[in-house]
Amino acid sequence: MELKGKSLMVTGGAGFIGSHLVDRLIREEPERIVVCSNQFSESRNNLAEAEADFDGLVLHQVDVGDYEAMRKIAEAEGVEVVFNLAVIPLPTSLEKPEWTFEENVRMSASICRLAREGVIGTLVQFSSSEACGSARSCPMDESHPLNPETPYSASKAATDHLALSYARTFGIDVSVVRPFNNYGPRQNWGKYAGIIPLSIKRIMEGELLTLYGDGRQTRDFIFVTDTVEAVVRIAKSEETRGRVVNVATGQEVAMVDLMRMIADAMD
Q1: Looking at the domain 7-180+224-248, which fold is it?
Q2: Whole-prediction pTM
C-alpha cells in the first residue's frame, strides 16, 4: 500500500513520537496530513518544522474519544489511513488510574469504530512495550505474554486486544505497532520522563544522577526516527495486518552503563 497522494491522520501527532512520524510521513508525499490532538497548547512547537515544510498539514484540537467529532473531521478531510498515537501517559495513570484507563480505551474505541463503519480504510494502532511489563524471560521474545503492571500499561494491553478483536470480528484493516523505549529530540525531560533526557537534565543542572538498585536492570532503547521509519514500512506492508509488530533493537543496555555513556559524552 502506498501513502503517496493519500489523506493521512495522526492522532497524538503533536507529541514526541507523533511529531517525528508527521515529519517522516511528509517524505511519502501525501495529499494532506491531519493532526488531531487535545494538547496543542503544550506541544504545537513540536510541529514547527512540519508546518514550515508542508502546506498540506491540517491541525485539529479535538477530543479523540469523541466519535462524532472525529467522524466529521475524517469525512471532511477524506482521511484514508489513521496512525493512532492518542494516549494519556503513564505518569497520569499513577494519579488518575481509572480515568487514564477509561480514556485510553475510549479514544482507541472511537478510532476502531471509524474503521468498522468504513469511514477510514487502514488503522495503524500504537501499543507500548509497557503492555509486556517486566520480563518473565530474558531476552524477551515474540511469544512473551502481556503482563501489564500499571493502569497505563493495562490500558495499552486492552487497546491492543480491542484493535485485534475488531480485525477478527469486523474485518478492519489494522496493524498494531509495539515500540520499545524511544529516545531523541523533543522527548519530555520532566520528573517522570525517560532516563536519557532526565539524566542529561540533571548533569546540566549540576545534580547527582539517580540509580535504583544495582543499576544492572536493562532496557531496549531505540532512536525515535528509527521507530517512525519502521511504522511507515508497517503501514505499507499488507503482511502486518491483524498482527502485533514489536519495534526494538534487540540490544539490552544496563542503566548503569547508560549513565556512564551519557556522563562520558557530556564530559
Answers
A1: Rossmann fold (3.40.50)
A2: 0.95
